[in-house]
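Page 47, continued from p. 46.
Same chain as before, 194 aa.
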Amino acid sequence: MPFVRNHNHRKLKLFLLSFILIASGITLAVFITHRHFLEKKDNIVSAIQNKANIAIGKAHQTAIRNGIKEWSLDATSVNYIVKKKQAIFRDLFVTFYLKDKTQVYLTANKGILNTDSNDMELFGNIEVKNSTYCLKTENLFYRHNKRIIFSKVSVKVTGTTFDLAADSMFLNLNTNKTAFEGNVEGILSESIKL
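Result:
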């Protein structure tokens, strides 16, 4: 019987040693992978900051033309790139002020503002809202001189009396008129007035 007991003792030692080596290997692999990920993230952040002349947390900007406020923008951070005349905003909220004293609100994950023209391109989880509708898309443009918002990618618009989807759209902030193009589909309720 001592042989069986000794044999079981060896198996237990071998099992525990194997378990410790495997656990150490997994821990080392996770550490190396995590460290590589952190270094890569730091490289991306430093590359963005190296290109930027100024990096600011929490930003506010307002566009005024002929004494009239046209839009204001708030963001969690901004990087200004002087050579390109661009400001790159993160987590932005824009308020457009219309002639009829109403407002249109826009949110996006990222936005690029051309500082010489006040034109914008917006990316990621974009929502454009006013009191009657909500538009959702992933890419949107704003042209400041013409005061137009447009998208070249699919949009979905919901309101109290309608639901629409289209391949692209155009919104004139001066006239508050919207046009949809390409595979336009929608549902209109009975109470809508055309």
